[in-house]
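B., you asked whether I could sanity-check this one before it goes into the benchmark set. Here's the sequence:
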Amino acid sequence: MGTSGKRKRGWLRAILVWVVQAIAVFYLVSLTGLVALRWVDPPVTMVQAQRRIEAWVRRKPYTKRQQWAPLGRIAPGLQHAVISAEDGRFFQHHGIDWKEVQKVVDRDVEDGRLGRGGSTITQQLVKNLFFTTSRSVLRKAVEFTLAPVAEWVLPKKRILELYLNVIEWGPGVYGAEAAARSWYGIPAARVNRDQAARLAAVIPSPLHRKPARMSSYSAEILHRMDQTGW
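And here's what the prediction gave me:
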């Protein structure tokens, strides 16, 4: 092998080592962050940072509205509505709902498309904390590996509390408290059953949906809640 070939192999080896080291550092930082989240509320998430940067690039005004609310100050009906809408088996799985994954894969194969839906609340929390909203196979793969780690490190109720406090509920609106006050002018503790279902219906597309327009989907969420006994 000539000098040129050896040089190329050397570069490839160096790049591979760098990539492996970068991945190891990312997982170490993520694990450390997840451990800290047992006691510390995150001041910002990657999705929140993304929205601020997008507003800056587009030269549009941006105001972040977020007020942390412990799980005990979020109406049980709102908790149940979000679980019913986003992850009905939240308290049964360990980060990945393999039954739901199988359903999604079967549906995607039948429709001729891949990688849509099936994310658990834990996966969505990981995405909000460490990634942006851009879709990629790599991001999904990392979600799959970090979600069980999050479940191992964090209690279920803490995962739910974090999720309800960091996700988007409208442009610049993050968390259940800000959502309840922005859309209904009341604290999250006073959200009634119908309002809870409408707020939960906004989550899949928070920048475009409004609770008042979610009558059909909110009715489906209420039906799921009834079936669960909530």
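One thing to flag: The first strand starts at residue 65 and ends at 66. Otherwise nothing jumped out at me.
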